[in-house]
C-alpha cells in the first residue's frame, strides 16, 4: 500500500505543470522521469562496476582519496555506531570508498550502496548522492523523498566537494536505513557531513599547492572553504570555489595572475618596485634580528650597499 501511494505521489508531482517551479524535490523527480526515463515502481538494484573498473576510477582520484581518508574515518567514528554508513563518490556518483559497521554491511549491500555502485540521478533517480551532484549543493533526501519506491527506506545526507580548479570533484554521503531517524537527527548529521566535506576540500586544496602560502579569507560563505594560494611574488596561483565566488575570480579552471593585495584590498602588499624592495629589506633585517651584515649576506649584497638602500628607503638601522 505504501509503495502504491509513493508511486502515485511521484507521478502526480511529475505531471503537475507548476510543482517543479516551486520545489527542488519536485524538479528532481521530474528530471528523473522525463530526462532519465525512470519509473518510480522499478525494483531493479543499482548496477555495480567490477573491481578492475573501480580501481581505474580510484586511480584517477588516488591522491584525493588519500587526503580524504582521515576525515572519512573521523566522520564514521561519529555516526557509525548509530547505523549510518559513510560513502565517498566521484563527480559522476560512482561509490569509490565507504565506511560501514560489519553488522550493517549486508544491509547496505542490499540497498545497493556498495563500492562501484552508480548513484547518479541518471541511474537511481532522486537520491542524496545523485541530486547533490546534479544540483551541486548540500541535500537531504529523507525516505519517501527518493524517486524509486525501492529506496524510500533510506535517509541520505550529502555535500559536494569541489576541487582546486573550482569544478565538482566528489560527493560525501552519510546514509541510514533506520526507521526512527528524525528530521532533527538528519539536520545534525547533515551539519557533520557539510563540515567534513568542507574540511576535505580545504585539505586537498592545501595539498595541491604545497609551496604556496595559503590565505584564509573572511567571508559569509558557509558552503565551502574560502582559501587562496599565493606564491612568493604575491600572485594568486590557486583559489577554492568559495574564494572564486567571493572575490569574483574565474569560476573554473586556471586563474588569471593577480597580486593577492589587489584581490584582498590590502595596501601593505608589495605593490610597486620601491615598495617591494622595502618589504624585502625589512624581511631580511627581521630574519637577521637587526644585524645589517647578516641581512646583507642574506640579500646577496654588500653591507655598504644595504646601508645606502636603507637610507634611500627610509629604513632606520
Describe the structure.
The structure is a single chain. This protein folds into 3 domains: 2-206, GAF domain (Beta-Lactamase); 209-264, no CATH class; 273-313. The protein is built from 14 helices and 8 strands. The chain has helices spanning 2-15, 19-22, 24-35, 51-60, 62-79, 105-111, 121-124, 128-135, 183-208, 241-247, 260-264, 273-287, 292-299, 303-313; strands at 85-90, 95-99, 139-142, 155-162, 168-176, 213-216, 227-230, 236-239. A 5-stranded antiparallel sheet has the order 2-1-5-4-3, with helices on both faces. The protein has a 3-stranded antiparallel sheet with strand order 6-7-8. It starts with a helix and ends with a helix. The model is unreliable at 267-271 (pLDDT under 50).
Amino acid at each position: 500500500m505504501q509503495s502504491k501511494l509513493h508511486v502515485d505521489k511521484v507521478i502526480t508531482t511529475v505531471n503537475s505543470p507548476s510543482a517543479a517551479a516551486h520545489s527542488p524535490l519536485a524538479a528532481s523527480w521530474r528530471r528523473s522521469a522525463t530526462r532519465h526515463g525512470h519509473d518510480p515502481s522499478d525494483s531493479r538494484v543499482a548496477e555495480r562496476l567490477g573491481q578492475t573498473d573501480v580501481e581505474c576510477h580510484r586511480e584517477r582520484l588516488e591522491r584525493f582519496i588519500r587526503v580524504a581518508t582521515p576525515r572519512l574515518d573521523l566522520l564514521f567514528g561519529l555516526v557509525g555506531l548509530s547505523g549510518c554508513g559513510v560513502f565517498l563518490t566521484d563527480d559522476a556518483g560512482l561509490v569509490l570508498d565507504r565506511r560501514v559497521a560489519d553488522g550493517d554491511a549486508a544491509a547496505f549491500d542490499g540497498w545497493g550502496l556498495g563500492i562501484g555502485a552508480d548513484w547518479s540521478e541518471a541511474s537511481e533517480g532522486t537520491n542524496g548522492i545523485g541530486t547533490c551532484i546534479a544540483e551541486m549543493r548540500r541535500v537531504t533526501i529523507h525516505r519517501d523523498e527518493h524517486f524509486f519506491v525501492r529506496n524510500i527506506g533510506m535517509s541520505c545526507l550529502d555535500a559536494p566537494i569541489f576541487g582546486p580548479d573550482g569544478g565538482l570533484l566528489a560527493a560525501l554521503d552519510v546514509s541510514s536505513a533506520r526507521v526512527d531517524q528524525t528530521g532533527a537527527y538528519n539536520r545534525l548529521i547533515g551539519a557533520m557531513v557539510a563540515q567534513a566535506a568542507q574540511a576535505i576540500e580545504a585539505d586537498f586544496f592545501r595539498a595541491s599547492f604545497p609551496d604556496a602560502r595559503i590565505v584564509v579569507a573572511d567571508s559569509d560563505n558557509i558552503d565551502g572553504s574560502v582559501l587562496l594560494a599565493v606564491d612568493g611574488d604575491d600572485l594568486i596561483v590557486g583559489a577554492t570555489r568559495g574564494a572564486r565566488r567571493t572575490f569574483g575570480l574565474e569560476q573554473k579552471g586556471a586563474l588569471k595572475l593577480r597580486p593577492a593585495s589587489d584581490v584582498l584590498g590590502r595596501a601593505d602588499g608589495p605593490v610597486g618596485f620601491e615598495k617591494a624592495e622595502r618589504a624585502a629589506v625589512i624581511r631580511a633585517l627581521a630574519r637577521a634580528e637587526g644585524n645589517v651584515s647578516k641581512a646583507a649576506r642574506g640579500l646577496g649584497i654588500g653591507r655598504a650597499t644595504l646601508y645606502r638602500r636603507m637610507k634611500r628607503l627610509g629604513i632606520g638601522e
